[in-house]
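It is worth pausing here to work through a concrete case rather than discussing structure prediction in the abstract. The textbook approach is simple: state the sequence, then state the predicted structure, then interpret. We follow exactly that order.
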Amino acid sequence: MTLANFDGILLIDKPAGPTSHDIVDIIRNSYRIKKVGHCGTLDPAATGLLTIVLGKATKLSEKLMSDDKVYVGSMKLGETTNTYDAEGQVESHQPIPNISINTLQEEANKFLGDQMQIPPMVSAIKINGTPLYKLARKGQNVDRKERFIHLYKFLISQYKPPFAWFKVACTKGTYVRSLAHDFGKALGCGGHLSGLRRTVSGKFKVSNATTLEELTTLSATELSKRIIPILKLTALDK
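Step two, the predicted structure:
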């Protein structure tokens, strides 16, 4: 059976490891759907909500991609990497100041609101048609344009040196890796993102998502019951 005639949104809880494009390929190949896309890339090491668009719903991709996001994650302070996360090469070690979680929260509050953010070198942003991550692999470091973002919430939920756990609510295009890097820099000890999970994207929540393990075992009929129809999406906007 094919899902070629199915149009709508499929929510996936992406595990660590596969890329967002890997998930798209699994759906396309497993269920023989011609038009499949995703709304907002998650790094391979990141987990959580990946919004998949199917069929005619692919036309809504740009609109859904512009939705606000919520993430939970952790930062490792006192250590910087070239990718701003745990996947990269360590560039520096610095002692962590003797600070409390309250002090961390005070610093986090300074990041709230409108701001300009410089994306990391290891990202999919293109310079003259070439993704930055490909330039980074060649050892190149180029100037990146600042991007406007807005943080609604930056909550430090737990602190056990050198790790700090957080929750962030932000606009599209926010690089949480850059936020972790900038936060560590503001503290004077450096830091990088050590874990990340997307829990909310627009009106959708990861608690309603299908896991990759489930995805690979469902029949086409079973999967079709998990697809949010376009008409229901229209109703959610009202």
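Step three, interpretation. Residues 8-66+202-236 form a domain with the Pseudouridine synthase fold (CATH 3.30.2350.10). The first strand starts at residue 8 and ends at 14.
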